[in-house]
């Protein structure tokens, strides 16, 4: 996720944005993947765990440290690319909304619009990356995986493509679009808003003078905020992508409703499974993302 990285400064060339975005994505994965593994387990196999702490203990006991990085190859490869696309796309939409006037700062409403447009694009990038990640993270919960487990991200991609074609790799795309549009709109809006408040309070209105700690704080808060309008969609997406037999998001939702009635479990609980773990992950992961991105931009700008 991202923010007011493009202020009134000379526009970065595309390779610089790609490099900075890739480094930001890697930082996010290294910090956030253990939390993401716990979140996906809670979303897709909630009957096995009492809560996030219980899930953490069980993974640590059964699989040790490496268990938390199960399926990390897909996001490490994919999230780096995703963030490169994310920041480049966001920058281009900002320029488009400005109408070519790079000296004009965007309003927060325009920033949210750029974020929403970015989300609509990012869903097409995120869907296959997240599908492979979820399949690898949850395959131990699937009976068929005991007999023929995926050997890695490329093996998983090849087998899914062989059996289901390109549509198999894009299983869950519509619900990902519904998730990513409000998520990225909120993400950029909040990041810019927090930076604006801090800039007005501490730096005479200049957002470009924020310290590293202030940037980390802004990114962390934005990371938390972006999950609030989209978490139920994310639960449905993860559930769909852990079981490729679901025909649609509606089919998956009806299955959750049926499970809720049979087990007397509230839909609120089902659609919020793993939320606490996600929020705990969101602050450090997104703080790391923005810190890496801002530092990379600073270095790349100096070298221009």
Rg over alpha carbons = 20 Å
Q: Which CATH architecture is right? A: Alpha/alpha barrel
| CATH homologous superfamily identity | Mitochondrial carrier domain
The gross shape turns out to be globular
Which CATH class applies here? Mainly Alpha
Number of alpha- plus pi-helical segments: 12
* Structure classification: mainly alpha
Biggest sheet details: none
Q: Which H/E pattern describes the elements? A: HHHHHHHHHHHH
GO molecular function: transmembrane transporter activity
Membrane topology: Multi-pass membrane protein
Keywords: Membrane, Mitochondrion, Repeat, Transmembrane, Transmembrane helix, Transport
Main location: mitochondrion
What does this entry look like structurally?
There is one protein chain. This protein is mostly helical. It has a single domain, classed as Alpha/alpha barrel (Mitochondrial carrier fold), CATH 1.50.40. The chain has helices spanning 14-44, 52-67, 73-98, 108-138, 143-147, 153-169, 173-202, 212-225, 231-242, 249-263, 267-270, 275-302. Helix 1 (14-44) crosses helix 3 (73-98). The longest helix is centred in the first third of the chain and has 31 residues, at 14-44. The two termini are 25 Å apart. Pfam families: Mito_carr. Solcar repeats lie at residues 12-96, 106-197, 210-299. It comes from Gigaspora margarita. GO terms for molecular function: transmembrane transporter activity. One of its GO terms (cellular component) is mitochondrial membrane.
